[in-house]
Amino acid sequence: MRYSEECQAVWARIERGNPGDVVTVEAAGGAKRSAEIEYGDDKFTSMVRVGGGEFRVTACAVSKTGGKSTYRHYCIRASEATAWR
Predict the structure, then answer these.
(1) What's residue 83's pLDDT?
(2) Phi, psi (rounded to 5 degrees) for 15
C-alpha cells in the first residue's frame, strides 16, 4: 500500500501474483478500487482519496480460484498512525 500526502490518496499493489489475482484498496467511508492481473505478476489499483474524516484503509489480495498463487486471501490495514515510507 502506498500513500501520497500531496494527493491525500492511497493505492495498493499486488506483487508476485498470477493472472486472475485481484488487488483491492478501500478507504473508510466506502471509496474502493480494484485491479486484476491480466499478464505478468503485479498490478496497481487506482488511487482512493483519504483526505478529510477518518483515515483508515484496507488493501487485500485475492488469488484466482484454481490459480497458481500460493496465498488465498491476504489483507493489510493502515491508519494515519502507520509509518508511511
Answers:
(1) 64
(2) -120, 150
Q: What angle do CA 36, 84, 21 make, to 5 degrees?
A: 15
* Cα separation, 24 vs 44, whole angstroms: 9
The three cell numbers locating residue 18: 498470477
**DSSP of 25-52, one letter per residue?**
EEETTS-EEEEE--SSS-EEPPPEE--S
Cβ 37 vs Cβ 27: under 8 Å: no
Please list the helix, strand and coil fractions of the chain in percent, rounded to the nearest 5, in that order: 0, 45, 55
d(CA 84, CA 10): 11
Of 23 and 70, which is predicted with more confidence?
A: 23
Q: What single letter denotes the amino acid at residue 39? A: Y
For 33-85, the pLDDT digits (tens) are 999 999 999 999 999 998 777 789 999 999 887 777 777 888 999 887 776 65
